[in-house]
Amino acid sequence: SDIGSQKERVVTEEEWLQKWEMGNIGFHKEQGHPLLQKYLDVLLNGRSGLRIFFPLCGKAVEMKWLADMGHSVVGVEVSEQALKDFFSDHSLPYCEEPVPEISGGKMFQSTSGNISLYCCSIYDLSSSIIGKFDGVWDRGALVAVNPCDRQRYASLMINLMEKNSSYLLVTVSYDPNKHKGPPFYVPESEIKSLFG
Question: Are strands 106-110 and 115-119 parallel, antiparallel or unpaired?
Fold first, then answer.
């Protein structure tokens, strides 16, 4: 399970912000991700009114889709522009407030209260700040996290999950020697060692 030349690769917060500023967001899916629709039953497991976490959420349209189904959605994203775009794209009114526990952190919440998006580094979050979740939709987060931070990321995600949580994870499979990432290649063996 050699991840090739990607092992040492680091993408900075500034690089991610620049991608959003330049509109270089090929990872964003306007129609939502077909795998979430396909495996929605696995995520929900017959339950309603869930708290669902979107790590590195960008402006994912699935957040509104799940909120419209009656779930409570929480996301985190380093780009304030992405979060504001999400609300404007869906014509959703929202309010903005500081997050006292996080220096410079902000929370954007729909006025309906069922969508709360944090603007900060994901590593600034903890269950004491955002609570725990019944479900996680990880569509582009693990594959965007720098390979050297995967263990830290997985530990945080496990800490944010309720006992009977469902975790949907999308990864990409390719030869890591031919693409420097992101998205990064995460072999199945590593996913097993990270999440057990």
Answer: antiparallel
Count other C-beta atoms under 10 Å from residue 47's C-beta. 12
pLDDT value at residue 1: 45
Distance CA 47, CA 182 (A): 34
43 is known to lie in a ligand binding site? no
Each residue's pLDDT tens digit, 70-87:
999 999 999 999 999 999
Q: Tell me, which fold does domain 4-22+32-195 have in CATH?
A: Rossmann fold (3.40.50)
Does 22 count as an annotated binding residue?
Answer: yes
Is 77 annotated in a binding site? The answer is: yes
- Are 108 and 96 spatial neighbours (Cβ–Cβ below 8 Å)? yes
Q: Is 21 annotated as a binding residue?
A: yes
Torsion sign over Cα 132, 138, 140, 144: positive
Provide the mean pLDDT of the chain.
92
> Does 6 count as an annotated binding residue?
no
Consult the annotation and say whether 130 binds a ligand.
Answer: no
Q: Does the annotation flag 50 for ligand binding?
A: no
Q: For residues 4 and 169, what is the distance between their CA atoms, to the nearest angstrom?
A: 22
16 is annotated as contributing to ligand binding: yes
The answer on whether 117 is annotated among ligand-binding residues is no
Gap between the Cα atoms of 72 and 63, Å rounded: 9
Is 122 annotated for ligand binding?
yes
27 labelled binding-site residue: yes
Give 121-152 pLDDT, tens digit per residue: 999 999 999 999 999 999 999 999 999 999 99
